[in-house]
Amino acid sequence: MKNIATFAIFVIFLLSGCSFFDPKPKQEIKKPTPVNKTAIKGVITELSYQDGGYCYTIVSTDTTNAKLPKASFCSPKFYNNKGDLVYATFLGQKVESMLLIREANESVPVKKSRKNIKTKIDIPKSESISFD
């Protein structure tokens, strides 16, 4: 009888699992705040060195679809010179990447066109056709 009671208690404890213990409280997961990532394609109009970093001002050349008309931000790295056409992506006020599209001092090659040299030919005085 004692063995049956011990066996019954053991089976009840085995089937009940962890119901005797309090469950751990769930930790609230904080969602990260979204970072405002933006991009601009334009010309660097101002470049200055302030507080150990380079500050750029870019005026957009493409303002379709409600894109930024102008952007100002700083970076510890030097990217491009004033007057360069660039595509820049940045998070908040920090530059993530800046791609050079065209340099400011880039010279456009001049294509030399060949003009046909026109010569005057005299009008033929006679014309002969032979059917041999």
Write the layout of secondary structure elements.
Elements: H1 2-16, E1 37-50, E2 53-60, E3 70-75, E4 85-91, E5 94-102
Antiparallel strand pairs: 1-2, 1-4, 2-3, 4-5
Provide structural commentary:
Residues 1-21 form the signal peptide. With 132 residues, the protein is mainly β. The protein is 11% helix and 33% strand. It has a five-stranded antiparallel beta sheet, with no helix packed on it. The radius of gyration is 40 Å and the shape is elongated. 9% of the residues are buried.
Summarize the main sheet: 5 strands, antiparallel
Distance between the termini: 138 Å
Helix percentage:
10-25%
Q: What is the third-level CATH name, the topology of the domain at 37-102?
A: OB fold (Dihydrolipoamide Acetyltransferase, E2P)
Catalogue the unreliable spans: none
CATH class of the domain at 37-102, please?
Answer: Mainly Beta
* Helix/strand order, N-terminal first: HEEEEE
The percent range for strand residues is 25-35%
What is the CATH architecture annotation of the domain at 37-102? Beta Barrel
How many E strands?
Answer: 5
Total helices: the number is 1
Name the structural class. Answer: mainly beta
Q: Evaluate the radius of gyration.
A: 40 Å
Average of per-residue pLDDT values: 82
In what order do the strands lie side by side in the largest sheet? 3-2-1-4-5
Organism: Campylobacter mucosalis CCUG 21559
Keywords: Signal
Protein name: Lipoprotein
Signal peptide: 1-21
